[in-house]
Task: structure prediction
Amino acid sequence: MSNGNNDAAAPNAHRLLWAGFMAILAAGVGFGVRGGILNDWATQFGFTQTQSGEVTGFGLVGFGIIILFGALLADTIGYGKLMISAFLCHFAGAALCLAATPAYGAEHNQAAAYNLLKWGQIFFSVGNGLAEAVVNPLVATCFPKNRTHYLNILHAGWPAGLVLGSLANYFMEGSVRWEVQWALFLIPVIIYGLMCMGQNFPKSEASTKGVGFGDMLAEFAAPVLLFLLLIHAMVGYVELGTDSWISQITGGIMANPSRGVLLFVYTSALMFALRFVAGPIVHKISPLGLLSLSAILGCLGLNLLSAADSVGLCILAATVYACGKTFLWPTMLGVVSDRFPKGGAITIGAIGGVGMLSAGLLGGPGIGYKQDRFASEYLQEKNPAVYQAYKADKPGKFLFFKEITGLDGSKKGAVLDAPEAKLTPEQKQVKPLLLEANLHGGRMALKWTSLVPATMALCYILLLLYFKAAGGYKAVHIEGTGHAAHDSE
Result:
């Protein structure tokens, strides 16, 4: 990591970088904890995998929408005011989720619990979105000579938060209620709030150069930017969508939920470390070269995970997958800020927003649907009577795919999560079938998801060929001011 002041364009650049790091870390802690307590929600409130995926999806949809709108208004409203709004939304998100248990009550009001968790996740995601609408263009502005490197450092806060949130869940599970675990993300929220107090926030390069709002929006007429938006929708699906489920799926593969959590901690720690060395890698193979390699490794890792049949192979496959997904999100932000600086906070916000919307609307629910579909089909084929006994009360669907009735999380949890000594003879007989169905559903979900990074790899190779034909990939800077402002490589 280069940390000399020559990299910075503002005297408080490094303080703002680390405040942004803490804001993203807060999102990561919440995401990591939520991944560990999904099973608690399913068991307590009787959610199916699809319903659980919908709740996690709400935690990403608001994130994406607010990044988009926040980016449009960032330079007008001011970065400081947006960070205050993010701070308040984070607290509202915590309070709404904590109200789910009393709302469920003795009457087992699943709808009330679902709605409170939904709105709690929406407010949590709005807080995350407002913060990210600020910190991405802020860091790109503070470090104009090394954007990709510092954006990777900024987003190292994400896996750091995942590590802390997952470890909290690992050590607290079974002894501390999920409500306490969920509230832990407020600690880094308070820290970033304190770090932002009294600070001056610089405006984007485009705003400083007097580029008008219309000229910023005009950047979206560029076919390359539209193509990058499409690719980043796939990044959101494969990275954040998969992360919503990965510890649960790998826990099933390794026949131990705790191992799944620890494996997620390991891969997140690996991501945290690798994001600090993005700069030297980019200088050697270019941002698009790094993205191409990352997508290939992501596809390979997911396929290896879907076929892993031992703890050792699972660790190896997860390592490959982690190396693949590490650089995707921040390097895409770096590419957009390099190539489309006239878009200011808007273009970089659009990339982040599209990624989050894809993860929330497609990734989390879609991977949950795939697990429900393949698990229920497997159980129907193996033992129709057991499927009838454990299926959910209502069917569900995802987009235009066929309607399916998944397994009831409460019924399934009563067997899979209970100590062996407390199971009835019938439950002991059924348990292996439920475990096999869960495992099959998880494996198939990973296998089908691997098609997404495979498609991304082809897209990145096309971009490499395009820039090679155009004279090579280079960062763009703004020359001139106002309507006379133009790009210069």
The CA atoms of residues 163 and 265 lie 5 Å apart. The domain at 13-488 is CATH 1.20.1250.20 (Growth Hormone; Chain: A;).
